[in-house]
Amino acid sequence: MPETPTLLWYRRDLRLSDHPAWHAALERGGPVIPVFLKDEGVRMLRTAPAWRLGLGVGHLAETLAEKGSRLILRAGPAEHAISQLVEETGAGAVYWMRAYDPVSVERDTAVKAALKERGVEAESFAGHLMFEPWTVETKQGEFYKVYTPFWRAVKDRDVETPLSTPSDLAPPSEWPESDSLADWALGAGMDRGAEVVRPWVQLGEGAAQSRLGAFMSSKVEGYDDGRDIPSQDGTSNLSENLSLGEITPRQCWHAGVRAEEEGKAGAGTFLQELVWREFAYHLMWHTPRLLYDNWREEWAAFPWNEDERRSEVIAWKRGRTGMAFVDAAMREMYVTGRMHNRGRMIVASYLCKHLMCHWKIGMEWFEDCLIDWDPASNSMGWQWSAGSGPDATPYFRVFNPETQLDRFDKKRAYVNRWIAEGQKSPPDEALAYFDAIPRSWAISPDDAYPDPIVEAGEGRKRALAAYENRDF
Ligand SMILES: Cc1cc2nc3c(=O)[nH]c(=O)nc-3n(C[C@H](O)[C@H](O)[C@H](O)COP(=O)(O)OP(=O)(O)OC[C@H]3O[C@@H](n4cnc5c(N)ncnc54)[C@H](O)[C@@H]3O)c2cc1C
């Protein structure tokens, strides 16, 4: 008797290669029906991540169609949509790749229980991470709160070899109905920004593999220093693709290990950076409050400004603080959908320390604007910067956005690339910012560049006083 179909439920794993759920579905036998849901998780996404997801899903649908398969789209709460599809297709199994954030975990647990109750096989697979959060623990059986011991605990582990791309996708003879992706309008909120950011997007697993290849052949050697210079394209840029599972961390890891064996400087550091991502997930899974509350709970008593309407918050969001490094980085984000890691650290430190604003304001703004938005890395990065996270930067480390310029943008190549005001012939990238931002901001390249809203020295003094006088 032929096997019943398997529903292959796609989420943040938009690829065919190194996809354990696909392999399991094909091994089970019977046809495979790939599905993507506009469910509670998708509805929660903010502007740029939702837009980028829409592009990724569209690209995946095309790839599947080229291979004789199809991506079935359905909207609604996951439990209901999956159960409806099981009903319509007679599927005997539903397979998916695991997610680790609390909303997904709750959703998946409910879906699994409902499927099992009606006698449908439900199985999830690992792949978004190399080291599942519960598999790494200290000698005392606890989770790690500091990166370096976490790194030591995992660095010599065997990371499974990536799986190949399946060639026959076992399509069914009859397909269920599908929504139209265009009708979902996942990118609606992007408005004018979509056209500006689109050329910077590298979509799909083919592009991700090319990025990885290019990084390993020409950039990894110089990564140790290059990764700190925001005017250079010295990093892999893979966060965009890792975020949606267009490439897997183990594919990156194995490429890094090969580069290290070939004696390429920088490969070891790249592997350590990949493990920062794992560490972020480890923390999020063990302490989900990382996403929405001070990881160190005593920081609730810190006198953060939480009012987003204040003029300094508006200036920060618009890249008009008068601090060139901060403003350049914010504008890079509006134009490219991404921001260099040094920029992220500087704008976060500036918002939380110089401007004394709550890290949640910045975290949520990034969540609105980043196409590589990742719940775990974003919240860990913000809490690290603010001082409220585990393994956070010490309170007295206040990035000085002016001296940082002298260290990391000596020739001002980065700020000139992104800030048009004051330049006779600004480059296209700097001008693109004015096309990306809402018209209501009413900013023009002919405006004068603002004076600092807070002087670097004054802001630092104020921040240190508040941090030193806290009574916890
Ligand atoms: C305030 C703040 C917010 C951040 N928000 C995000 C976010 O939403 N999404 C995101 O992917 N990263 C975030 N990061 C981490 C880091 O800035 C980016 O991962 C990195 O800039 C991506 O560029 P890349 O792919 O070229 O990195 P590479 O330098 O090439 O590194 C390779 C990969 O390692 C991982 N990685 C590198 N640095 C870190 C780090 N500090 N933390 C976690 N993983 C890391 C990423 O997956 C990255 O793609 C944030 C950092 C800070 C300080």
TrEMBL record:
The UniProt record lists the keyword Hydrolase: no
Family per record: Belongs to the DNA photolyase family.
Cofactor: (6R)-5,10-methylene-5,6,7,8-tetrahydrofolate; FAD
Pfam families registered for this protein in UniProt: DNA_photolyase, FAD_binding_7
Domain spans labelled Photolyase/cryptochrome alpha/beta: 4-130
Top-rank taxon: Bacteria
Species of the source: Roseivivax marinus
Residues carrying the site annotation Electron transfer via tryptophanyl radical: 304, 359, 382
Name the record gives this protein: Deoxyribodipyrimidine photo-lyase
Binding-site list for FAD: 223, 235-239, 270, 372-374
Record-linked PANTHER family: CRYPTOCHROME (PTHR11455), CRYPTOCHROME CIRCADIAN CLOCK 5 ISOFORM X1 (PTHR11455:SF9)
GO biological-process terms attached to the record: response to light stimulus
PROSITE patterns: PHR_CRY_ALPHA_BETA (PS51645)
Annotated GO MF terms: deoxyribodipyrimidine photo-lyase activity; DNA binding; FAD binding
Gene3D superfamilies the record matches: 1.25.40.80, DNA Cyclobutane Dipyrimidine Photolyase, subunit A, domain 3, HUPs
SUPFAM superfamilies reported for this sequence: Cryptochrome/photolyase FAD-binding domain, Cryptochrome/photolyase, N-terminal domain
